[in-house]
Amino acid sequence: MTTFTRDNMSRRQFFISSAGAAGATGLWASTSGARKATRRERPNILFLMTDQHRGDCLGVNGNSVIHTPNLDRIAQEGACFQRAYSSTPTCTPARAALLTGMSPWGHGMLGYSRVAHSYPVQMPQLLRDAGYHTLGIGKMHWSPQRHLHGFHRTILDESGREQSVDFRSDYRSWFASVAPALDPDATGIGWNDYRAAVYALPEALHPSRWMGDVAVNFLEGYDRPEPFFLKVSFARPHSPYDPPKRWMDYYEDAALPEPFIGDWANRYRERSDDTFNIWHGDMGGEQVRHSRQGYYGAVSFIDEQIGRTLEALEKRGWLENTLILFTSDHGDMTGDHHLWRKSYAYEASAHIPMLMRWPEGLGGQPGQVLTEPVEIRDILPTFLEAAEIPIPDLVEGASMLPLTRGNNDNWRTYIDLEHDVCYHVRNHWNALTDGKTKYIFNAYDGEEQLFDLNSDPGETRDLAGHADHSAQLRLWRNRMIEHLEPRGDAWVKNGKLALRKHSILHSPNYPKETTG
Questions:
Q1: What whole-number distance in Å separates Cα of residue 132 and Cα of residue 320?
Q2: pLDDT by residue (tens digit) across 237-269?
Q3: What CATH number is associated with residue 168?
Q4: How many domains does the chain have?
Q5: Which are the catalytic amino acids?
Q6: Pair 65, 296: CB distance under 8 Å
Q7: Would you say 262 and 459 are in contact if contact means Cβ atoms under 8 Å apart?
Q8: Is 408 domain-assigned?
Q9: Domain for residue 501, yes or no?
Q10: Are 404 and 368 in contact (CB under 8 A)?
Q11: Neighbour count for residue 164 (Cβ, 10 Å)
Q12: Predicted model pTM
């Protein structure tokens, strides 16, 4: 077992995890020399994602504390999209956008609901129909859980969605086979809990480690002639914040960032309830720090598994013929503005990581930092362009590959965000952002918020009530009116943004077989 501290481990040092097989490292081995020319075939596609991963929790996004060398390298050898968002920042609507390449109004989920049984456009199905072998590993968050949406197979870890009498995930089945006398939930932290704790079982049993093992095994054994589409979808750093001890220890004395607390956030200071899965409450600096210690440890443990996955890809000689994209479904407030969990328009919830590395000739020069506003809906058309598959008219996103080649002609100026009622009727909003400015309309009472993200990335100063920002507020309000007006009087009435006192969970585009 290798142990380390922040003082004795450099960001680029190799180490073997306490659960690792001989020869396995937690750091993606560096290639020597220039990138080699690729074979002229359609690329493999490796889609890596985490759950509830803040956009600012990557080294490449300017976080000097967090240890993410493998994710950073994807960006350093490809691109980092610094202004990436999740338009509806909770798990299921974000996954509907991934599946369809559509906006919230387009796929129909305006808040937390069930991913429909089928859509006219589905990512795995399109790639499968075009000749790709398709495998999904980890958290899909579909309903029913075993529905494939075009994957040849899924190998599931569905986290807290194990209560159904007719479903047990593949991770839970594996756990029962190798550790029948142990409780997979022995750590005792809930699925939306604000607390953190060291994983109570041997590291080899952790679901993040299992995910890495399954992905590595697939890559080491893949022998089919067709290119693959591999989705590796980690269920962490979504709570429980339960990294192995070595990763919790790594951040024990780290200078973790303190929470942003806005001049408008006092309304969230009181604890929302007496449970451990509160959505707001000032829990004190010590609790926020401990929660973030576990959260950061969970991110770094996943980065290690991603490093193992990429090392396996490189050993097969496929690195230079594989498009690699990393993102998350949404972020995590972890105490910012006294808020917890997700579903908010604020950066900690809606801003996500987006990294991409491409085979030579498919994109532009490596090492780019791109500032165009991108969103989850853009991932499907990116994969389709790479695979030389026509992009269906129903897809509302756009391929991000042209951006890497310096072509941002007709790219959107800003992106729309929204969420239907979640946790409380007052948490119900629409927003617009270009990554530099953000406008939020609170649907219940009409309150507006305006933030300058360049000078105030933590959104601590609400400019909506400042007279010297009235013209800017009016500009963004009019943009919101233009965006929502086609939806009808429930959204814009007599040229003004309408209040919405009640939930409007689905648009008319939500597939009808699961409505109601």
A1: 18
A2: 999 999 999 999 999 999 999 999 999 999 999
A3: 3.40.720.10
A4: 1
A5: 91, 141
A6: yes
A7: yes
A8: yes
A9: no
A10: yes
A11: 10
A12: 0.93
